[in-house]
Amino acid sequence: MDWGNVTAEDLIDALREVDWSSPPRPLPEFFSRFTVPRSYAKWNSRLKCNLYYYRTNYFIMIVVILCLGFLRRPVAILGAILTALSIAFLNDSFTGTFSEKVTRTVRQFSPHLAAKMRPPLTPVIRGRPLAKRTIHICGRPRWVFVFIFSSVSFILWYVSCGLLTICWALAIALLATILHASFRTPNLKARLNTFREEFRAVWRNYSEL
After folding, report:
1. Strand pairing partners for 136?
2. At what angle do helices 8-17 and 92-109 cross, to 10 degrees?
3. DSSP state of 143
4. pLDDT tens for residues 146-198?
5. ∠ CA(42), CA(9), CA(164), 5° rounding?
6. Are strands 140-141 and 136-137 parallel, antiparallel or unpaired?
7. I need a surface site. Which of 40, 100, 162, 172 has the fewest CB within 10 A?
8. Is 202 helix (H, G, I), strand (E, B) or coil?
9. What is the DSSP letter of 3?
């Protein structure tokens, strides 16, 4: 796969749709081999490849750096966790898994309430939905939870006076992510994973025909 031809929009769409439930890559592999890219095209391709392949590692690293910046401010740590959840809710796979687990837990105590948490059915004619499928969390549109979690996290940051701290911590986390993705040499596993994801995408498009 030529990652140089992949646009930023394509990469964001892929990260939004891909399954994030897989465990992070092992640390020996994550910090294995680093080289300087020989050209801008090589750097651009490597950056996109590593951002996609080590997505779970980068997400965990950003959360850890944010939490380290708020060791003396527990309220701000809670705000960072809510922010991480609001970002994670933008991924379709994580949202579906989270909603299913919450509904399953509620069903053990209140089956009637769990029935109300089911997402509405999308009308289908000849195997095709009439409208674009909307992602729901516990029976409500996803944007409702993203808005609530983001608003609460902002309030917690404001109350804890941690807005400046979060800016510095986020800048350091993003810088560390970009530096690692720029100098980490893509290995054979990353290339094989790319081919597997391509096959899944082609097979999904074929099955929708």
Report:
1. 141
2. 20
3. H
4. 899 989 988 887 787 667 777 888 899 999 999 999 999 876 666 556 555 55
5. 90
6. antiparallel
7. 40
8. helix
9. G
How many CB atoms are located within 10 Å of the residue 201 CB? 13
3-state class (DSSP) for residue 132: coil
86-136: per-residue pLDDT in tens? 888 888 778 888 888 888 888 888 888 777 777 766 555 555 554 456 778
CA dist 138 and 149 (Å) reads: 15
Spatial neighbors of 98 by CB under 8 A, at least 6 apart, are 88, 89, 137
> How far is residue 173 from each of residues 39, 64, 117, 166, measured CA to CA in Å?
25, 9, 36, 10
Which residue matches tokens 């608003």? 151
Yes or no: say if 138 and 118 are a contact pair by the CB < 8 Å rule: no
Residues comprising the chain, all counted: 209
